[in-house]
Design a protein that fits this description.
Structural class: mainly beta
CATH topology: Rieske Iron-sulfur Protein
CATH superfamily: Rieske [2Fe-2S] iron-sulphur domain
Number of strands: 13
Order of helices and strands: EEEEEEEEEEEEE
Strand content: over 45%
Radius of gyration: 14 Å
Distance between the termini: 5 Å
Shape: elongated
Length: 108
């Protein structure tokens, strides 16, 4: 594993996210309370694009079926909502992030 540069801190303001493809991996980088976090960018339920989802605090919601993930850990907070069915989702992969100057690096 190695830290790879993904972007600049100015690209991701407080309370926002940005999608990157790094070595073939879809990764979302978040700025939450001034700290940067990175998790997988595809929902573990059916591959929905989390970058098109809603970010509310430290929770990102998949736009397809409503699965929710904690951006600080990648943990699934709740599964998809499909009618009356309650399904589970797997944890999103999470990645270590470090900031060097104004550069964001993610450990892939």
């Amino acid at each position: 594993m190695e830290y790879l540069e993904v972007g600049k801190t100015s690209e991701i303001t407080e309370g926002t996210m940005k999608a990157y493809i790094i070595k073939g991996n879809n990764i979302l980088v978040f700025n939450y309370n001034g700290k940067y976090y990175a998790i997988g960018g595809k929902c573990t339920h059916m591959g929905g694009d989390l970058s098109k989802g809603k970010l509310d605090g430290k929770i990102v919601t998949c736009p397809r079926h409503g699965s929710k993930f904690d951006i600080t850990t990648g943990e699934s907070v709740s599964g998809p909502k499909i009618g009356f069915l309650k399904l589970k989702t797997k944890k999103e992969p999470s990645y270590e992030v470090k900031i060097e100057g104004d550069t964001i690096k993610v450990n892939i």
